[in-house]
Amino acid sequence: MGEVTTLGTLADEGVLELGDGYRTKRTELGDEGFRILRVADMEDWAVHADGPDHVREEYRRAIGPKLSEPGDVLLSTKGTVGRVAIYPEGLEQVVYSPQMCYFRVRPGNGLHPRYLAYWFKSSAFGRQRSDRSASTDMAPYISLRDLRSIELSLPPLRTQRAIAEVLGALDDKIAANERAIAAGRSLAKAEFEQFSRSVGSERMSLSDLAARGSLAFGDGYRTKKSELAESGYAIVRAADVKGAKLTFPDGGNCVSTDYASRIGAKTIQPGDLVMTTKGTVGRVAVVPSQVDLAVYSPQCCYFRVEDASGLDWGYFAGWFLSDDPQRQIEPLMHKSDMAPYVNLKDVGSVSIPVPDIATQQEIGAVQRQLLGQAHALVNENAALAYTRDQLLPLLMSGRISVNSINGGSPE
C-alpha cells in the first residue's frame, strides 16, 4: 500500500516521538499532582482518568515527556497488550504508567495520528505484536525495543486522512453519545440528590435490607485453576468496570459451564448493580438488559433487588450511582501490600435512606427513564463500534477503498 518503514525509523526521523511510561518511586507519590494513568484506566478508544494514585507536581521535570498531551496515541504493552486509545482534548494532564507506550505524531511529516491509532488495531500490527510478545510469570508484554522494530506500510497522507475520516466519523459519534450518557448520569445524580434531600428518611444498612429480603449482595466467585476453560463464563474483573459501564471481556480465561451450580448467584444478571471492592475501590455500574454469560470475580461485589414491594429498583440504582456510597466506602478501605480493598462486612455496613415505597417509586421512575436512555445510547455505541471494527481491517488492508464506501467505484 505504500512505503515500508519501522516505528523506530519514524522516531529517529522526527516523524513521531515514542516512549513508555514513568516508573514512579514510592517517595514521589502524593494525594495531589499528576494522576497516574494505568492500563486498567484505558479501554479501546476510551480513557478514564479517575485512578487514585498521583505523582507530586514537583517531579514534573523528572517525568518529562511522559506527561500526556492531547492527541497522543496510546498502546497498552503489558498485561492486556494491544488496547489502543487517543488521549482526548479537555482531560486533565496525567502521567503514563510503564504498562503503556505513547506515540506523539509531529505534524507535517506524512503521518496522520488517527491513522496510526487505527493501524495498531490492524492484522498487520497484530501479527508482528504476537511474534514479538513475551511473557513473565506476571503478565504478557511487548518491549519498547521490539516496538521500534515493528514495520508498517504508509500510504499517501491523503489516503491516511480519508481512512481516518471514515473510521473517525464513527468514533466521533460514539464520543458524542458518551458525552450524552455522561450528561444524563449527571442529571440522574442531581435529580436523586434533590429528591432525597426534600423527603428525608431513616437510613438502613445494606445488611439490614438483605436480612429483611429486599436486597441480595455478595462478592465474586473464587475460580480455581482446574475450573478454567477456553469458553464458558467470562470473568468480569474490576478493570471491566469503568465510566459507570460494565464491559464484557473479549477472550481470555473463562470458567467452565460444568461449574454452574458452584457459581450460583455469582453469575451476572440484567439489572445487577456492581461495585469494585479491590484496587480502585468504588467504581460502579449497572448491568444492561442484554448480557453475555459471565461471572463476577472476587474484585467485584454485586447488588440485586429481590423484593420490589420493599425496595424500588430505580430508587436503589439512583442511590447506588450517587456520591453517597462512595463517601461511606472511602473511610472503610483497608490497605495491603497489593491494593486497597473493602470486605463484604464493610459493604454491608453502608447505609441508604429508605423512604416509603410510594416515594421510592416516584424517585425511581425518573431514574429508570434516565438509565433507559443511557442504555439505549450504550447499545447504539455497540452497533457503531461493530461497524467500525468490521470496516477497519478492510480499509487498512486495501480490500475496500474509501471511494467504495462513499458510493464511488472500488479502487
Key words describing this protein structure:
single chain; 411 residues; Adenine-n6-DNA-methyltransferase TaqI, Chain A, domain 2; four-stranded mixed beta sheet; 20% strand
The gist of it:
This protein has about 400 residues and is α+β, with helices and mostly antiparallel strands. Helices cover about 35% and strands about 20% of the residues. The longest helix is centred in the middle third of the chain and has 43 residues, at about 155-200.
What does this structure look like?
Strand 12 and strand 13 (140-141) form a beta hairpin. The two termini are 12 Å apart. Strands 2-11-8-9 form a four-stranded antiparallel β-sheet. The mean pLDDT is 91. With 411 residues, the chain is of the alpha+beta class. The chain has three domains: 3-114 and 139-150, Adenine-n6-DNA-methyltransferase TaqI, Chain A, domain 2 (Alpha-Beta Complex); 155-201 and 355-411, Helix Hairpins, CATH 1.10.287.1120; 203-353, Adenine-n6-DNA-methyltransferase TaqI, Chain A, domain 2 (Alpha-Beta Complex), CATH 3.90.220.20. The chain has 13 helices and 26 strands. Helix content is 36%, strand content 20%.
> Structural class, from helix and strand content?
alpha+beta
Shape: globular
The CATH first-level class of the largest domain comes to Alpha Beta
Strand order of the largest sheet: 2-11-8-9
Report the CATH topology name of the largest domain: Adenine-n6-DNA-methyltransferase TaqI, Chain A, domain 2
| Average pLDDT level | 91
Radius of gyration: 23 Å
Q: What is the CATH superfamily label of the largest domain?
A: DNA methylase specificity domains
Number of spatially distinct domains: 3
Stretches where pLDDT falls below 50 for ≥5 residues? none
Head-to-tail CA distance between termini: 12 Å
- Major sheet summary line: 4 strands, antiparallel
User: How large is the share of residues in beta strands?
Assistant: 15-25%
